[in-house]
Amino acid sequence: MSAFILGPLWQISVLVFCIGVLWRLGSILFRRFPRELARPRGPGFPRGLITLLRRSWPRGGLTRENALPMLAGYAFHLGLFALLLFAEPHVRFIEFQLPFEVWESMPHWAFVLAAQFAFAGLLLLWLRRLMHPVTRLLSTLDDHLASGLTFFAMFTGCLALFEFSVGLRVLHVFAVELLLLYFPFSNLMHAFTLFISRATTGAKAARHGVNA
Questions:
Q1: 42, 206 Cβ separation under 8 angstroms
Q2: What sign results for the dihedral spanned by CA atoms 149, 123, 195, 193?
Q3: Which residues fall within 8 angstroms of residue 97, CB to CB, at 6 or more apart?
Q4: d(CA 83, CA 112)
Q5: What DSSP assignment string belongs to 22-37?
Q6: Is 83 helix (H, G, I), strand (E, B) or coil?
Q7: What is the average pLDDT value for the chain, to the nearest integer?
Q8: What is the pLDDT of residues 46-82, one digit of tens each?
Q9: What residue spans define the domains of the chain?
Q10: What torsion do the CA atoms of 9, 10, 15, 17 make, to the nearest 10 degrees?
Q11: Could you point out which of 52, 102, 117, 178 has its C-alpha 20 to 30 Å from the C-alpha of 84?
């Protein structure tokens, strides 16, 4: 079973992830939009970048209502990004897949801090999704599956640090494979489409003379 997980299933999950993500992005980037007949009232590209940056923080600053999702969101996403690319086991794994050395891994204290931020952020966002009256109604099965698979991958990653157990490392790889297989067909695609959506919204609004 472990040979299948570390071999064919890993290759299949990576292939599905890459093809699925490229297909979803291509369907957006190469989509034919209706021709705009109105005369442009301003350049779209600069305003699109401004909107992308502006929407990354509340215009009125942190309030009682938005402080938790905003801070927890940044803690989770930045912590997970740091773990994915700079945790020592992941750096070694990337170098194993490539014919050259990559970047240096983060020190142990930074790894612990990033892991705590990522776990705390994910759990706070998930609890808010379950408890807040608005997000509870808006949330779908897809949202909860995405959170659950992400937590499963992160939790098994912590267990895999006990390097004396090969089974725990195989379990972590299996959890990541499930996440990769599910990713292109879920709301997790917002990791790629978020920036496209915000920039496009700002650019289109600028051409219509609206400050987005």
A1: yes
A2: positive
A3: none
A4: 9
A5: HHHHHHHHT--PPPP-
A6: helix
A7: 87
A8: 776 777 777 778 877 788 888 888 999 999 999 999 9
A9: 2-25+119-207
A10: 100
A11: 52
Which amino acid makes up residue 183?
A: F
> Under a CB-based contact definition with an 8 Å cutoff, are residues 40 and 207 in contact?
yes
Q: Which residue has the tokens 């609890």?
A: 127
Q: Is the CB of residue 150 less than 8 Å from the CB of residue 122?
A: yes
Quick one: residue 157, left, alpha or beta (phi over 0 = left, psi -120 to 50 = alpha)? Answer: alpha
Task: Residue 182: name the closest of 156, 155, 154, 143 by CA.
Answer: 143
DSSP characters over 35-96: PP-SPP-S-HHHHHHHHHHHTTS-TT---TTTHHHHHHHHHHHHHHHHHHHHSHHHHHHHHH
Residue with tokens 């959506």: 197
Intervals of the chain under pLDDT 70: 33, 36-38, 40-45, 48, 163-164, 206-212
Return left, alpha or beta for 61; rule: phi > 0 is left, psi -120 to 50 is alpha, else beta. left
